[in-house]
Amino acid sequence: MNDVMHYGEHFEKIVDIIESARKRAYRKVNEELILMYRDIGEYISVHSENAEYGDAFVQRLADFFAANYPDLKGFNRRSLYRMKQFYELYKGNAKVSSLLTQLSWTNHLKIMSACKTMDERMFYMNMSVKEKYSSRELERQIDSGYYERFMMSQKPLSPAIEASRRATGNVFLDHYVLEFLDVPDSVSERDVRKSITGNLKDFILEIGKDFTFIGEEHRVQVGKHDYYVDLLFYHRGLSCLAAFELKIGEFKPEYVGKMNLYLEALDREMRKENENPSVGVILCASKDDEVVEFALSRSLSPTMVSEYNLKLIDKRLLQKKLKEYIELAETISDDG
């Protein structure tokens, strides 16, 4: 039995070699596929401008494939037009050239069809690479207005909140969407917590894949008293513990004092020498930004206060709010 276990450990290394080779092969195949689509798109774009062919070129090419190469799939009129669009969107753009081959064609199609600006496209391309989004995950992020929510989380805030933001590496959003919990509006904090732990994969997609779940109602002891952190994570990028507190109502200033206690206890009990100080996130159903600013102004611990929604927010409303924010920021900049 011991021999089997001994050899098993060695054989697992062979499996790792196989999996690594498969991943490299997939990346190479995907890279060649994306470059092929780009080159086809360039050819179509150039010849479509020719007066001899014009707009009919794509249709004639699709008919040619159908008549002469019926076994070649994925080269109908719509697909060929997408290749042309792909080339024309990104041609000459040095900023995206290194990203193009790192995404799947399916993710490229979703980004091209759903995003209206180059900034938004680049955002989702970078996030797809960083977070390794599947096509379903990318679609969910786009539908939830992740770009708009991220951009609005970058708005200038008070010095105290800016300090917390810098300490937490700008990884937290001002607004989270938890539609996947599928719970009614009138729900207890325990119900929300239990639903999150039952949907951890979706929750981590929303907050970021660098988070690793440690536990719920994590006990910390201070003096003779026990306290319980709603949700405890570890963030690999920040190299620190991250405590999440869930509140079903509006933010209250006393929540900050309690979070400070949790973070100090975590640092004393669990933090390792090579790790950074623990960070806290207070998730509330609503918040008054001015109250948050006052509450955090004397706080020494890196703490963020964020709102959450249990339903998807109308993306058009998010786009409108982002536009208003950008216009306001430009006005302030001009006045300065």
Any overview of this molecule?
This protein is α/β, with parallel strands linked by helices. The protein has two domains: 2-144, no CATH class; 149-319, Trna Endonuclease, Chain: A, domain 1 (3-Layer(aba) Sandwich), CATH 3.40.1350. The protein contains 14 helices and six strands. A six-stranded mixed β-sheet has the order 1-6-5-4-3-2. α1 packs across α3, α5 packs parallel to α7 (135-143) and α8 (146-152) packs parallel to α14. The chain is globular, with a radius of gyration of 25 Å. The model has no long low-confidence stretch (mean pLDDT 89).
Question: Helices, strands, pairings?
Answer:
Elements: H1 2-48, H2 57-68, H3 77-90, H4 94-100, H5 105-114, H6 118-131, H7 135-143, H8 146-152, H9 159-167, E1 175-177, H10 189-198, H11 200-207, E2 211-222, E3 225-235, E4 240-250, H12 254-269, E5 279-286, H13 289-296, E6 303-309, H14 315-335
Helix pairs in contact: 1-3, 5-6, 5-7, 8-14
List SSEs in N-to-C order.
HHHHHHHHHEHHEEEHEHEH
Percent of residues in β-strands: 15-25%
Which strand order spans the largest sheet, edge to edge or round the barrel? 1-6-5-4-3-2
Global Rg: 25 Å
Query: For the record, what CATH class of the largest domain applies?
Result: Alpha Beta
| Count of discrete domains | 2
From the spread of the alpha carbons, the general shape counts as globular
By helix and strand content, what is the structural category?
Answer: alpha/beta
Q: What is the rounded distance between the termini?
A: 75 Å
Supply the CATH architecture of the largest domain: 3-Layer(aba) Sandwich
